[in-house]
From TrEMBL:
Record's keyword annotation contains Metal-binding: yes
One matching Pfam family: ADH_zinc_N
Keywords: Cytoplasm, Metal-binding, NAD, Oxidoreductase, Zinc
Name by which UniProt lists this protein: L-threonine 3-dehydrogenase
Necessary cofactors: Zn(2+)
Residues annotated for Zn(2+) 1 binding in this entry: C38, H63, E64
C-alpha cells in the first residue's frame, strides 16, 4: 500500500510502498478516505528538535483521519465492516490509576498514533477497537477526518460554562476557529477571536463571531470597546501558545474569570501571577480529548447543526502532499485535507 513515511532523519516525507497492516487482537482495520494535516505533522515534516528527540524511524505519520472499516478482529463488538469511523489518536494503557478511574485522557503511558506507532497517512491503518469512533449519524468524510482536532476545540471550549458569557479566543488557527464555532453555537453572548492573520480572521467572521481582531493593528481594549463591554471577559480560550496572547488575555479577564489553555508555548515565559491571584482567575491546562465524552459532544454538536465546513479551506489528493504541507505551514489557511480515496 502507499503511505507517507518519515524515512530519514532530515526534513521531508516520502510517499512509498509499505506492507499492508494486519489486524491484531482487539483491533480494527480501516481503509483510509481522508486525513487532516496537524501542527504535529508539520513538526515531523520539518524534523525539528522535538521530532528529533521523539520519533523512532522509519514511521508512517498522521493521526487525523476517517475511513471505512474493512476488517475486525474476533470478539470485537459494535463495530462492523463498512462503518464510517474516525480514530482517537491517543492509545492508553488501560491499567494505570487514571485509566481505571475512567480518566483515560490523563494516562501517563499514552502512545500517539503517527508519533510513537505507525499512523494514518496511508491507504490502511489498524487501531484498537477501543480507539475507534463509529459515526452513527451522517457526516461528510472531510469533517469526520478532523474529529481529532475538533475534539481539542470542544474539550477546551466546554471546559467552562459558556451560555451568556463573553468569550475571548486567542489564536485563529483551525482549532481556535472550531472553538469559536462551538462557543457561538452553544450560546455565548460575545465571542471575540484574535490573531495576526487577516485570512484566518476572515474565516472566523464566516463562523459568526462577534469580533475578529487583528492585534497587529488594534488593541484588545479597542475590541472590547467595539463590543460595548464594560467589564472583562468571563472565559478565555488560549489557542496560540503565544506569550503575548496569554498576557493580554489575563489582563482582559473579569474578576473570577476562567481560562482554558490548549496552545503549547515553544519555551517558558513570564506570567503576571499577581493579576491571576488578585483577580482570582482559574487557569486550566487542556490536552487532547476526554475519552469518550468529548467524542459524544462532538457528534451531538454536528447532529444539531454545527457547521465546520468553513474551517476546511484546502483539499489535495494524497500524492500532492508536498503542496498540502506547504499550504498548511503558511499560517494563512484553515484545515488542509488529504484525499486517499483514489489511492
Amino acid at each position: 500500500m502507499k503511505a507517507l513515511v518519515k524515512e530519514r532523519a532530515e526534513p521531508g516525507l516520502s510517499l512509498v510502498d509499505v506492507p499492508e497492516p494486519e489486524v491484531g487482537p482487539g483491533e480494527v482495520k480501516i481503509r483510509v478516505l481522508r486525513t487532516g494535516i496537524c501542527g504535529t505533522d508539520l513538526h515531523i515534516h520539518r524534523f525539528d528538535e522535538w521530532a528529533r528527540h521523539t520519533l523512532e524511524l522509519p514511521l508512517i505519520v498522521g493521526h487525523e483521519f476517517c475511513g471505512h472499516v474493512v476488517a475486525v478482529a474476533p470478539g470485537v463488538e459494535d463495530i462492523a465492516v463498512g462503518d464510517l469511523v474516525s480514530g482517537e489518536g491517543h492509545l492508553v494503557c488501560g491499567k494505570c490509576r487514571n485509566c481505571m478511574a475512567g480518566r483515560r485522557h490523563l494516562c501517563r503511558k499514552t502512545i500517539g498514533l503517527g508519533v510513537h506507532r505507525d499512523g494514518a497517512f496511508a491507504e490502511y491503518v489498524t487501531l484498537p477497537a477501543t480507539n475507534v469512533w463509529v459515526h452513527r449519524m451522517p457526516v461528510h468524510p472531510d469533517v469526520a477526518a478532523i474529529f481529532d482536532p475538533f475534539g481539542n476545540a470542544v474539550h477546551t471550549a466546554l471546559s467552562f460554562p459558556l451560555v451568556g458569557e463573553d468569550v475571548l479566543i486567542t489564536g485563529a488557527g483551525p482549532i481556535g476557529l472550531m472553538a469559536a464555532a462551538v462557543a457561538t453555537h452553544v450560546g455565548a453572548r460575545n465571542v471575540a477571536i484574535t490573531d495576526v492573520s487577516d485570512e484566518r480572521l476572515d474565516l472566523a467572521a464566516k463562523l459568526g463571531v462577534s469580533l475578529a481582531l487583528n492585534v497587529s493593528r488594534a488593541s484588545l481594549a479597542d475590541g472590547m470597546r467595539q463590543l460595548g463591554m464594560k467589564e472583562g471577559f468571563d472565559v478565555g480560550l488560549e489557542m496560540s501558545g503565544s506569550p503575548a496572547a496569554l498576557r493580554e488575555m489575563i489582563a482582559a479577564m473579569t474578576h473570577g474569570g476562567r481560562i482554558a489553555m490548549l496552545g503549547l508555548p515553544a519555551e517558558e515565559f513570564a506570567v503576571d501571577w499577581s493579576t491571576v491571584v488578585t483577580s482570582m482567575l482559574t487557569i486550566k491546562g487542556v490536552y487532547g480529548r476526554e475519552m469518550f465524552e468529548t467524542w459524544y459532544n462532538m457528534s451531538v454538536l454536528i447532529e444539531k447543526g454545527l457547521d465546520l465546513s468553513p474551517v476546511i479551506t484546502d483539499r489535495f489528493p494524497h500524492h500532492e502532499f508536498e503542496a498540502a504541507f506547504e499550504t498548511a505551514a503558511s499560517g494563512r489557511t484553515g484545515k488542509v485535507i488529504l484525499d486517499w480515496s483514489a489511492a
